[in-house]
Amino acid sequence: MPNYDYECSNCNHKLSKFQRMTERNVRKCPKCGEKTLVRQIGSGAAVIFKGSGFYENDYPKEGGRQS
Fold first, then answer.
1. Does 66 fall in a domain?
2. Chain segment 2-54, per-residue pLDDT in tens
3. pLDDT at site 34
4. Residue 5: which domain range?
5. Has residue 4 been placed in a domain?
6. pLDDT value, residue 2
7. How far apart are CA 20 and CA 27, in angstroms?
8. Do the domain assignments include residue 25?
9. How many domains are contained in the chain?
10. Which candidate, 50, 6, 42, 10, places its Cα nearest to that of 24?
11. 10 near 33, Cβ under 8 Å?
12. What are the backbone dihedrals phi and psi of residue 38, each rounded to the nearest 5 degrees, phi first?
């Protein structure tokens, strides 16, 4: 699931929301309560690695020994 960035056009509050691609855009700003949140263009395309299981030794280094 992608992480989308939103910005309120009323109070300029910024937030990120982890949601499914099929979910509707968030409209209500948690700070001012107005329905003026706008999803930022181009966000959600990056891969975010969170949690355990991602280690430096999982991938071979360039020029290093190949096993």
1. no
2. 788 999 999 999 999 988 888 999 999 999 999 999 998 764 455 666 666 66
3. 95
4. 1-49
5. yes
6. 79
7. 15
8. yes
9. 1
10. 6
11. no
12. -125, 130
- Determine the Cα–Cα distance for residues 18 and 43; give it in Å rounded to an integer: 11
Phi-psi map region of 33: left, alpha, beta (phi>0 left; psi -120 to 50 alpha)? left
- Cα–Cα separations (whole angstroms), residue 23 to 2, 18, 20: 11, 10, 5
The pair of three-digit structure tokens given for residue 54, joined into one six-digit string:
């991602």
Give the 3-state DSSP-derived string for the chain, with helices as H, strands as E and coil as C: CCEEEEEECCCCCEEEEECCCCCCCCCCCCCCCCCCEEECCCCCCCCCCCCCCCCHHHCCCCCCCCC
- Let me know if residue 22 belongs to a domain: yes
| CATH for 13 | 2.20.28.10
Q: Is the pLDDT of residue 58 over 90?
A: no
